[in-house]
Amino acid sequence: MIERAYVWLVGENLLVLGGVWFAVLGGAYEFAFRVGQRRNRRHPGEEREGVSTIVGGMIGLLSFALGLTIGYAQDRSEARRDEIVVEANAIGTAWLRAKALGGEEGTAIAKSIEELAKTELAYTTARAVDPDNELAARRGALQDKIWELTQTVARRDANLIATVMMTAINEMFDAEQAERFAFESRVPLTLSWMLLWGALLAIAALGYQLGLAGARYPVLVSLLLLMWTGALGLIVDLNRPRLGSIHVDPAPLIWTIESFKMPSPAH
């Protein structure tokens, strides 16, 4: 139930999710702060150096885990961007090969490639965490059609143009598969939960330490919680390739589709 609500918030409203995180972290801090205050009243003057060392280690370890997770999410984001460029180039090359083939089959293949490019654009720009299954079905049907037409041409005319075109079509399919994998590869949800629980424990430990010292520091603690919430939000935003402020730019696919209407250059 909680996991389902979390996934829904990730896809629907990152600001609300950030507010929930901030409130939960703040609640953990306040609870631990009061526990520390009570401990301090019962055992005044108790040695606090060990607590400070442990809290520092927890926050340092959490910072390290946060940096690794952000790096992982950024790598996935860059992979999606790179794969879109590769895919757009592969589609453009396959289309030019089909146009060079000429005839009814070449025209039909080129037209199907155009439809496939539009489907890929819809897939990369779908405003959802996961695209509609209809897009995947349409992509599969178009790939089958293109490959069947290509095989027909290759069996009938085993010339250089047909061979080069088959290679270009195969590379286009490979690029589409790699692009799809890049979009579906995200920071594991288990890692996100571990990071969130680690933040809760570290912030609670900090609250306990300040409670022992009897110093609340509301402004500084609020800023710290805001920074942690922002860092967690950044990971989620990088993890949503079609949503949010950090999304994959589909410009290479758009340019390729626009080039279909222009005269074909030598390629």
Low-confidence stretches: none
Mean pLDDT, all residues: 84
Level of helix content? Answer: over 70%
Structural class: mainly alpha
**Based on CA inertia axes, which overall geometry fits?**
rod-shaped
Separation of the first and last Cα atoms: 55 Å
H and E string: HHHHHHHHH
- SS elements, strand count: 0
> Which percent range describes the beta-strand content?
under 5%
The biggest sheet, with number of strands, parallel, antiparallel or mixed sense and barrel status, is:
none
Number of helices: 9
Rg to the nearest angstrom? 27 Å
Briefly summarize what is shown.
About 80% of the residues lie in helices and about 0% in strands.
SSE map:
Layout lengths: L1 H11 L1 H29 L6 H53 L1 H23 L7 H24 L3 H25 L4 H25 L4 H21 L12 H9 L8
Helix pairs in contact: 2-7, 2-8, 3-4, 3-6, 3-7, 3-8, 3-9, 4-5, 4-9, 5-6
How does this structure look, described?
This protein is mainly alpha-helical. The chain is 82% helix and 0% strand.
What are its keywords?
267 residues, mainly alpha, 82% helix, 0% strand, rod-shaped
